[in-house]
Amino acid sequence: MKTLHPMRAAADEGWSLVVPLKPLALAKSRLAAAAGPRLRPRLALAFAEDTVGAVLNCARVRDVAVVTDDPTASEALAALGARIVPDSPAAGLNAALAHGVRAVRSLRPWARVAALNADLPALRPEELTRVLDVAAKFPRAFLADAAEIGTTFLSAGPGVELEPAFGGASRLRHLSSGAVEIRLAGVDSVRRDVDTGEDLAAAGELGLGPRTAARWLPAAG
C-alpha cells in the first residue's frame, strides 16, 4: 500500500469527495439515443447537480471538489456549495481524480477522500453515509456499479493514495489493486450510474433527484 507520508496522523474530521465531470458537450454520449442531442448535455448537468446536492447533504461529508473545465457546470455546482478544481492535467478521468485529491490534500493533508461518479441522479444521502461508514474501516475501499463491472465509489484513508483505475471493467482493477470491495445491501442509489436510457429508467425506479426529474420527466412523457 503506497502512502503519502511515513508518519501517522489523525484524520481530519469528515470526508472530502472528489467528483469528476467532463465538458457537458462531451458528457453522456450514449444517452443521446434516448434523450436527443439538445437534452443530453442538460441531463448531464442535472445528474451532476443532483449528485453533488445529495453528497453535500450527507452527514459524513465535509466538502466536495468537482474537477471540471466546463464553465456552465462550474457555475451551477459552485452555487450548490462545491469547490471547483480546474482539470489542468486534461489527461482523462483518473488523472482528473488524482488531481482533485491533490487539491483537497493541499489544504487538508490527512483528509479522508473518496471519488464518486457525477452521474448518480437517484443518490440518497443516507445510503452514501452507510457506504462511507464502511469505507472508513479500510485504507482503500470501493463500491461496484449496478452491473458489477464498473465502479461508482473509491475511497482512501488518511495518508493513503487513492490510486483510481476507473473506466470500463474497473471493479476487477480496483480489486487487483488491493482495495476492499464494499458489499452492502440497500445502497442501490450509490451504485446506479446512468449511461443509457435503460440506466435512466432504472434510476427513475429508485427516485430521481429534483433537477433530473424536472428535465427528464416532461421529455419522457
TrEMBL record:
- Gene3D superfamilies noted in UniProt: Spore Coat Polysaccharide Biosynthesis Protein SpsA, Chain A
Tell me its family.
Belongs to the CofC family.
What is the documented function of this protein?
Answer: Guanylyltransferase that catalyzes the activation of phosphoenolpyruvate (PEP) as enolpyruvoyl-2-diphospho-5'-guanosine, via the condensation of PEP with GTP. It is involved in the biosynthesis of coenzyme F420, a hydride carrier cofactor.
Under the heading SUPFAM superfamilies, the entry gives:
Nucleotide-diphospho-sugar transferases (SSF53448)
Enzyme type, top EC level: transferase
Report keywords, A-Z. Answer: GTP-binding, Nucleotide-binding, Nucleotidyltransferase, Transferase
According to UniProt, the reaction catalysed is:
phosphoenolpyruvate + GTP + H(+) = enolpyruvoyl-2-diphospho-5'-guanosine + diphosphate
Enumerate the transmembrane spans. none
Q: InterPro entries attached here?
A: CofC, Nucleotide-diphossugar_trans
Pathway recorded for this protein: Cofactor biosynthesis; coenzyme F420 biosynthesis
Name of the protein in its database record = Phosphoenolpyruvate guanylyltransferase
Q: Which GO terms describe its molecular function?
A: phospholactate guanylyltransferase activity
Enzyme Commission designation: 2.7.7.105
Locate the residues binding phosphoenolpyruvate. Answer: T151, G167, S170
